[in-house]
Amino acid sequence: MANILIVDDEVGIRELLSEILRDEGHDVVLAENAAAARAVRNARRPDLVLLDIWMPDTDGITLLKEWSANGQLNMPVVMMSGHGTIDTAVEATRIGAIDYLEKPIGLQKLLSAVKRGLQRPAAPGAPAPLTLAAFTRSAPLRELARLVQQVVVNSRVLLLRVGQGSIAELAARSVQPKASPWLDLAAVSAALDVNQLQACQGGVLFVPELARLSRTQQKNLAFALERLERYDLHLVVATDHTLESLVREGWEEALAVRLFEVSLAPPSLADVRDDLPEIGAQLLLHLVEAGEVPRRHFSTAALNALRAQPWPGGYAELRAAVKSLALGTLDEEIALTDVRKLLIPATEGAVAVSLDQPLREAREAFERLYFEHHLRLEGSNMTRLAEKSGLERTHLYRKLKQLGLHGSRRSEES
């Protein structure tokens, strides 16, 4: 029979539903909150989930959204509530729940809902790309998701002001309606035509960095910009350049002005460093669900090691690293040693200072190693480096100049 997960914070309801379904021959697993539900879903891959809406840590609707956003809603979910409304039922169904049961739940209603759920065919194809909605425990990413949605309701164009550690693609994917087309204009080298735009109708056009577009691609961008409304398209572009610098590099001023009308400055991976373990874990889950890697999970120490990396290449670099880690181990658990071998150079932490040097030269060699390490760790963020080293910033800049190292004044206030 089926493997069924029951998620409810009331022990009496869990036990009652469990007894009924076990009498029907099903294998039942219980979870008292969303955290336990996540763990069981990942470990057991249930055939069906009975999910309570009102729970103390994370409510059922939020958990349902999370599973949908990260490609894990490939099992039927029946929502349960004693205080539900029609609006709640409609929202749950829109997200992907197959049924909605009001408490107290009658025996026949329960068995009928379970039977219908288990008769549904498995969800076909690979899961949709990850969006910001998958990261429900990160306050900065939740806020960014709300800001992105607020913008796209009122504008078809969104510019993301980014730097090192960009999460531009993750933000842009959050604009994309479910199962709609996606076109990276930076990958289109020939002239764009209306047939290509029509094929993308209702979807998203994306540019990961404006400054890297050729003249032809800039013309493609202008061509698409004039036809967004006609083909129900949204355009999301990202850049670490200013409007003025793009114009100096030869961009048409009218086009640049149009692109910069509505902009957001999303956090970088360095800004959400404390959330990197969750982001890494969710990326791995998504890759497993998509069949791109074998079934793997991170050790706690391995996840914490992700937090210590600077990730200058941003979300794309992090995703590639997670995929490499999953494919580069034969064990089900990705360990700290795996992360160290892939991500940390062999010379990292080896203080190559000769004790035979004069004190002044040895001290300078050590200081250079120290600041190289922390510049890399902090993504060249001078504010955090000043805090870490205990130096006032003017003194810090002077010290780096003496050592032949360079920080980023641009990130001083980030």
Automatic annotation (TrEMBL):
Residues 3-118 form the Response regulatory domain. InterPro entries: CheY-like_superfamily, Homeodomain-like_sf, P-loop_NTPase, Sig_transdc_resp-reg_receiver, Sigma_54_int. The keyword Zinc does not apply. PROSITE patterns: RESPONSE_REGULATORY, SIGMA54_INTERACT_4. The keyword Disulfide bond does not apply. Pfam families: Response_reg, Sigma54_activ_2. Keywords: ATP-binding, Nucleotide-binding, Phosphoprotein. Residues 104-327 form the Sigma-54 factor interaction domain. Coiled coil: none annotated. The modification 4-aspartylphosphate is found at residue 52. It comes from the Bacteria. PANTHER family: TRANSCRIPTIONAL REGULATOR (NTRC FAMILY), TRANSCRIPTIONAL REGULATORY PROTEIN. This is Response regulator. It comes from Aromatoleum evansii. The lineage of its organism: Bacteria, Pseudomonadati, Pseudomonadota, Betaproteobacteria, Rhodocyclales.
